[in-house]
Amino acid sequence: MTAGANTGGSVGMPTNKSKNIVADVQSRFALAMQELQLDVHSSYLTALSGGADSSALALLTQQYANAVGKRHLAVIVDHGLRRQSFAEASRVQDQMRSHGVASDIISIDGPRPTSGLQEWARLRRYQVLISVARDRQAVVLFAHHAGDQAETIAMRLLRGSGLIGLAGIPSTRTQHGIKISRPLLGWSREQLLRVCYHFGYAFEDDPSNKDRQFERVRIRQLLGNLVKRGEEPSSDQLCRLGLISAKLTEAATNANDRPLEEAVKWHGAGYATIVIKQLVDLPTFRFALLMRRLVMSISGSRYAPSGAALDELRNRIDDGLSATIGGCHFSPLLSKKGLGSNDKEETTIYRLFRETGRHLSTMPIRAGNEVVFAGCWLVKSQQEGTLHALGDTGKVSDNFDRAIIAKNMPEDWHLMPHRARQAIPVLTTLDGGLIYPQIGCYGKYQLATPLAASFLGMAKNPVFLANTQTSVPC
Question: Which DSSP string do the residues of 53-71 spell out, in sequence order?
């Protein structure tokens, strides 16, 4: 990255005109925070890359936090993918500190993948930000703006996405129990450049923003050329399409709240029971939307199943068959057939479990830390080790004494379906021991409560495990 002094980011003393403009954008930003109901939160965390967009967000959030007496921290995630990356991060941090913004640099350790490097970097950045936000009980703020929204919708339009995809980037959502918001979706990039200029802030300029090997860059240039020629669709039109799609999707989602509440029972062991007969009359789109919501909640996946996969799921459910989709398994509980060919009772109850065994999921955890395991379990451990699903560790049959299981397991463990038990997180300690949160502890760890696990599921509000959960003592 290079400093953006030649692109609107030069440093200088704000003039009276600049001060007036800053006051205006601060008022607009405060209104955006209020509209997204972010004003009720006491702590904010901004994702800071050093570019104009995230720098403007950090500056505006700090001014807002100062005005209303809230906490704010900007977090710079350094993946170490380039030799000079830490020096750049330090330069961004120094700039922010000179403008009164507290910031932390968090470096990513561990091996890099041989392929999919960008996706890996993006995922690790999210994990870091969510972890810090959980520690601070904060809302995570990203700096996506109207141009980003138009580009996203254009890419999805070209791929033939349906209504949900055309809704674009959501202004607010909950991931792993943490609220994530984008208060700048209604702002243009030019407006954010001017924010940096009027604050006297020299942002960084990332050359990859002009690299045509990336689809988003090609779409950005395409939309820019259409504007120059006066052709459609414009960025404004794409954003309006996204807004309409988002409103329709939100209306359908809200309409699903009642059938979801009536038909679905959530279990703290990480699975759901579904009374299918209460959902059979839902229109195709609403049924797919509800199942998409269920699958992503149980599997912990960030990606939804395709429309074709959801259509096939409905066909299998209509026939009373089991199904595998999006990292989950739908298992029919009741299915009866009468003597006559037309006398068939529909399957009335399904159980939905997270799959194990197909794609092994492991995660290191340090003593005293909280992590999100498999996208759907919030785990805190007093011992360092590696998290696995119960069904993904071969040590259960070899090292776990059956008599101790029978003695230490609570009654609920015996009643828990086998597939649910297989998906529960367990900890392999550095010395090869095993710790099971639903059982309490095993072996040498007799005097502590070393592991706590909470199923995130459909959490709509932040969950902070350290404040609310404990494991079962031996």
Answer: HHHHHHHHHHHHHHHHT-E
Distance separating alpha carbons of residues 163 and 16, to the nearest angstrom: 46
Poorest-pLDDT segment among 2-16, 76-90, 127-141, 145-159: 2-16
- In angstroms, the CA 30 to CA 39 distance is 8
The answer to whether 333 and 275 are in contact (CB under 8 A) is: no
Q: How is residue 410 written in tokens?
A: 């609570």
Domains of the chain: 2-240 (3.40.50.620), 268-354 (no CATH), 363-468 (no CATH)
Q: Are 249 and 167 in contact (CB under 8 A)?
A: yes
Residues counted in the chain: 474
Task: List alpha helices for 264-383, DSSP H.
Answer: 284-299, 307-318
Q: How far is residue 302's CA from residue 180's CA, in Å, rounded to a whole number?
A: 13
Closest CA to 465 of 426, 441, 437: 437
Which stretch of DSSP H or E encloses residue 217? helix 215-229
Burial 184-198 (b: 16+ CB within 10 A, else e): bbbbebeebbbbbbb
Question: What is the percent of the chain with per-residue pLDDT over 90, rounded to a whole number?
Answer: 39
One-letter amino acid of 84: Q
pTM recorded for the entire structure: 0.77
Answer for the pair 456, 176: CB distance below 8 angstroms, yes or no: yes
Phi then psi for 443, rounded to 5 degrees? 70, -130
Cα(153)–Cα(155) distance, integer angstroms: 5
* Residue 362 near residue 386, CB atoms below 8 Å: yes
